[in-house]
Every structure is written in C-alpha cells, then in structure tokens.
Design brief:
six-stranded mixed β-sheet, Rossmann fold, alpha/beta
C-alpha cells in the first residue's frame, strides 16, 4: 500500500454477463480525507463500494482497504470500515438503545463497554431524547442518524456513506453533512461519500471523483477540475458546473 493511502484500486472491474458495471477503476484515497464519489444512477458507485467491502467479488483488477484485500480478507476489512447503505434498515419493534445493543453484541462489545458507548453515540448523533423510541416510528432523518451511530459502534477507520442525505429535508441534510464533517475532523475518519447532492459534496469534500458509465472520468480537487475544464480565470466555478462540463463531454 502506498504510504498515506487508505484505499487503493488498480484497474478494478466488475462485469455482470455482457454488462460492465465498473471498468478499470484506478483510485487512491488518502487517510483522513473526505472523498466525494459522484455520478448518475447506474454509474457504478455502489458496485465499487460493495467490492471494497468484499460483498461482491471483482471480475478483474485489485483493491486494498486499510492495506487489506477485500477478496481474501473481507471480514478484517469490515472491522475497519463502517458502511451506511442508501436504505438503512432496522427492526421496527426495537428502540434506539436496543438496536445499538444488538450491533454491539454482533461486534463482540461487552455489556459494560456498550452501555457507555451507546449513551455517547446517541448524544453525538442527536438522538439522546429518543433513546427509548421504537425505530419503526423514526423519521428518515432519525434513521440515518441512528445508522451513523451503528457504524460508529466499532470505531471504524473508514466510513462508506451511500447517499446519506437522500430523502432528508434541508435542515436534516445540513445536520447530516455537519455530522460527517465533524467525524472527519475530530476522529480523523476517512470518508468515501457517494451522493447526488453536489452542493453538499462541495461543502465538505477534499477531493472528488466523477464516475460515468462505469469509468472514472475525472479525479481531484474541485479547483483543479475546474481549471482543467474551464482554464484559469477569475470566476470561481461550482461543483455542479464542473460536473456538468465533464458529463457533457463524455
């Protein structure tokens, strides 16, 4: 693994029959950065996350996460990575505390250690007042925040977040983005953030990658991508403008 890189892929590919979902993806993500993973539906972003987690095997190429091969060491990778999928599921008859106790047990965390950790995490994600509320009655925003608490139970080094603000109202989305940024800054957690909300990605990402039709067509800081697309000038371009420029040129 290259020094300072926590995620690396080399010509990583995934094919389903004659359809290529991910094609020759070579990607480097530094420890402690927030990397915005952009692209339309079907671009291959979620498939990439699943390969990095060892939940689906690549058709070609290789990857390492925290220096581990997800194909051969999937269980070890999962100890280091917290994954929040697009649609978070809970047992609706459990309350927030019970849900986190269940996750703690799955991760081998003893009752004493779990109790203190659960209190701290519910406070962190703003659900302390709803600790004994059944998750079946949670709003989508509350479920997303509880999902963040769940993935933090094992103190991950890396977070994979797939559309964490999808379906949230503006206030809920702002709170979620603020929480992600806070976790990155206070705990040095590396974040791979897949999202359609370009303004939110621009607000917190150190670098972004644009994926279209399974291929990574651009990667870098927003300023560097803007300069490559529009040249040097006085105007400061938004991520949306940069994204559309690359999208139109494919």
């Amino acid at each position: 693994m290259e020094i300072g890189m926590i995620i690396e892929t080399t010509e990583l590919s995934k094919r389903y029959g004659h359809q290529t979902a991910v094609k020759d993806l070579s990607l480097r993500i530094k420890e402690g950065e927030i990397f915005g993973f952009l692209g339309p539906n079907g671009a291959g972003k979620t498939t990439t996350l699943l390969m990095l987690l060892g939940l689906t095997q690549p058709s070609g190429g290789s990857a390492t996460v925290c220096g581990l091969d997800p194909v051969r060491m999937a269980r070890e990778v999962k100890r280091h990575v917290g994954y929040l999928p697009e649609n978070v599921g809970f047992y609706g008859d459990m309350d927030a505390v019970q849900s986190l106790e269940y996750v703690a047990a799955l991760n081998g965390i003893g009752n004493k250690g779990a109790r203190e950790k659960i209190d701290d995490l519910l406070d962190l994600v703003g659900l302390k007042g709803d600790a004994r509320k059944k998750t079946g009655a949670f709003s989508r925003g509350m479920k997303q925040r509880l999902g963040i608490a769940e993935v933090l139970m094992k103190d991950p080094t890396v977070l994979f977040l797939d559309e964490p603000t999808l379906g949230l109202d503006p206030e809920g989305a702002i709170q979620m983005i603020g929480l992600i940024q806070s976790l990155n800054q206070s705990r040095n957690i590396t974040v791979l953030l897949s999202s359609h909300n370009l303004s939110q990605v621009q607000r917190i990402s150190h670098r972004v990658g644009i994926m279209i039709a399974g291929s990574l067509i651009a990667e870098g800081s927003i300023d560097a991508l803007a300069e490559a697309s529009f040249g040097v000038g006085e105007k400061e371009y938004s991520l949306e403008e940069v994204y559309l420029k690359y999208f139109q040129e494919v």
